[in-house]
Amino acid sequence: MEELDLDAMLFFDAVPGAYSIYRALKRAILKIYPNTQIRMQKTQITFYNPRVFACASLLRARRKAEMPDSWITVTLGLPYRLESPRAAVCTEPYPGRWTAHIVLGSSEEINDELLQWIGEAYVFAAAK
């Protein structure tokens, strides 16, 4: 049985339902990358091994009216601009490094497409 993460529960407390989405994301990432470390920070929870490849937060990456009732935002570092309607915001903070913010409104949105992007971010972070 999966252990409850009290720090993460408190982190996502402001948005009802967000913790369950985070828990599903964490479970999916650890299933593929079991050596992943997780670090709780003030504004995000980072997934790294040994470099950060994904973050989960309560960032409002869309206008309030476009945000689902429950959500988390997954942030990925990629070597290309993520051209997908799922990417709420994409920026290029450094040449050849794109940051994509993806809003998840339910655990069902943690699908093969998202996991592929997470895998690409994992490989990109590892190559640095």
Task: Please provide a written account of the structure.
The structure is a single chain. With 128 residues, the protein is an alpha+beta fold. Helices cover 28% and strands 29% of the residues. Strands 1-2-3-4-6-5 form a six-stranded antiparallel sheet. Strand 2 (45-48) and strand 3 form a beta hairpin. The longest helix is centred in the first third of the chain and has 15 residues, at 18-32. The relative contact order is 0.18. The model has no long low-confidence stretch (mean pLDDT 95).
Summary tags:
28% helix, 128 residues, single chain, alpha+beta, 6 strands, globular, six-stranded antiparallel β-sheet
List the helices and strands and how they pair.
Elements: H1 6-11, H2 18-32, E1 37-40, E2 45-48, E3 52-57, E4 72-78, E5 87-94, E6 97-104, H3 112-126
Antiparallel strand pairs: 1-2, 2-3, 3-4, 4-6, 5-6
Q: What is the terminal-to-terminal distance?
A: 35 Å
Class based on secondary structure composition and strand pairing: alpha+beta
- What's the mean pLDDT score? 95
- Trace the largest sheet across and list its strands: 1-2-3-4-6-5
Tally of contiguous helical segments: 3
Number of separate structural domains = 1
Name the beta content range.
25-35%
Q: What composes the largest sheet?
A: 6 strands, antiparallel
Overall helicity: 25-40%
Total strands: the figure is 6
What value does the Rg take, in angstroms? 14 Å
Give the low-pLDDT segments: none
* Secondary-structure element order, N to C: HHEEEEEEH
Shape: globular
Offer a quick outline of the entry.
With 128 residues, the protein is an alpha+beta fold. Helix content is 28%, strand content 29%.
